[in-house]
Amino acid sequence: MIKIALLGSTGSIGRQVLSVVRRYPDKFKIITMAAGSNAVLFSEQINEFKPKIACLTNPEKVSQIKEIPLGTQFYYGENALLHAVDSEADIVFDAVMGYAGLKAVKYAIELKKNVALANKETLVAGGSLIMPMAKEAGVNIIPVDSEHSAIFQCLNFNANKQFKNILITASGGALRNVPIEELEKVSANDALMHPNWNMGKKITIDCATMVNKGFEVIEAMWLFNAKRENIKVVVHPESIVHSLVEFDDGAIMAQMGVPSMELPIQLALTYPERLPIENHALNLYGKTLNFSEIDKNRYPCFDVVDRAIKLGGVYPCAISAADERIVELFLQGKIKYTEIAIYLEKVLEKIENISVTFDSLEYVDRLSRIIVDEIYKIRGSL
Ligand code: NDP
Ligand code: MG
Q1: Which atom of ligand 1 is nearest to the CA of 197?
Q2: For 76, phi and psi rounded to 5 degrees?
Q3: Do 247 and 342 touch, CB atoms closer than 8 A?
Q4: pTM of the predicted model, to two decimals?
Q5: Which atom of ligand 1 is nearest to the CA of 9?
Q6: 3 state DSSP class of 292
Q7: Residue pLDDT, tens place only, 128-180
């Protein structure tokens, strides 16, 4: 029985973790659960799974929790996520959205708990601190993001295996067929219509802009100890090949499957064992696979993230934090889609490089969001 501390249970990934647990109740047990603000769904979840610890970070929503099961300890407030980690769980499943996920991973490593990592902001912002810490503590950081799970599978579940290049696939997002000159006019709803994947709002917008792909390059660098020049991004609109690994002899291994997170989520908990998933077979008959390079005119945000990667230090953290705030403004209809790249660029210009510590990341995270709001004040709303 694998005991799981699930952080972000009410989100898109979190809900799918719970489907996996429902599918194999004799293999998995939810020991703790944590969420942010969706107290109504959280209330249903804790009454179904009866965890030993339940945590809601938003104190204003606690009154919406109808009933706490007998035997469940309940925590709320800013540090609630840490209570969720500090439990008898064997593995911490971090499916929180945003920078909040990083502190939880740090604490999990301190407690020597393996981490199934969906929260990409952890490695984007803090990979240079988290990975050495995990190595020293002997903690596994297991990829959940579909591309990184694919790479992990192509490497036979050995993140240290030698390879030549990693090829990360990208669907191109919701706006891939919109003429570039019309991108200025697209609404948040247009950008949320992802053709292949059903995900949380923030990551769906990041897929449209390819900020997400930039973040995935960073994730891959940390997870597989890869240099930037050994990672290529390949646009693959069908989302059938989830990523590839090229070896020195020219062989390229790919992992294919239907576009669903259930496989990477389940595999992160069971690898190297593979358990059946019903209705999950990929029918290849009649399918065509296309691969092309990124069109830099269509996806200027990818280049900005790439610049942050090259600058290193606290810059990826700044871009990640700024992007969270910028996407909020875009989702609220306050800025144009095409302004996202402009804002990101300006944040990069304004951030000074300081040495990376957990405290400096916290500072840069906050500062970057403030800078976005200041730019917004100057540029004005739509
Ligand atoms: P969602 O927005 O759907 O869910 C986010 C979850 O995090 C919710 O449970 C939310 O709680 C919780 N949360 C947010 N902030 C806090 C906080 N401060 N404290 C505690 N809980 C918090 O996001 P996704 O599930 O789409 O994504 C989660 C992570 O996984 C992201 O980092 C994303 O990039 C990554 N990922 C997602 C994929 C996908 O298919 N969705 C694919 C690959 C990676 P509440 O809703 O209750 O406020
Ligand atoms: Mg992904």
Answers
A1: 40
A2: -145, 165
A3: no
A4: 0.97
A5: 9
A6: strand
A7: 999 999 999 999 999 999 999 999 999 999 999 999 999 999 999 999 999 99
The single-letter code of the amino acid at 194 is H
Read off φ and ψ for residue 323, nearest 5 degrees: -60, -40
pLDDT in tens, 230-271: 999 999 999 999 999 999 999 999 999 999 999 999 999 999
Alpha carbon of 266 to those of 2, 106, 181, 224, 280: distances in Å? Answer: 12, 23, 41, 20, 12
- 224 close to 316: Cβ distance less than 8 angstroms: no
Which residue among 13, 37, 201, 202 is best mutated to probe the pocket of ligand 1, counting the most ligand atoms within 8 A of its Cβ? 13
CA atoms within 13 A on the CB side of 220: 31
pLDDT confidence of residue 382:
64
Task: Kindly report the protein residue whose alpha carbon is nearest to atom 27 of ligand 1.
Answer: 97
Q: Following DSSP, what letter does each residue of 37-53 receive, concatenated?
A: S-HHHHHHHHHHH--SE
pLDDT at 66 over 90: no
Token digits of residue 174: 């919701």
Ligand 1-lining residues (CB < 6 angstroms): 8-14, 34-38, 57, 81, 95-98, 100, 118-121, 145, 197, 199-200, 202-203, 261
For 306-357, the pLDDT digits (tens) are 999 999 999 999 999 999 999 999 999 999 999 999 999 999 999 999 999 9
- Give dist(CA 329, CA 340) in Å, integer: 9
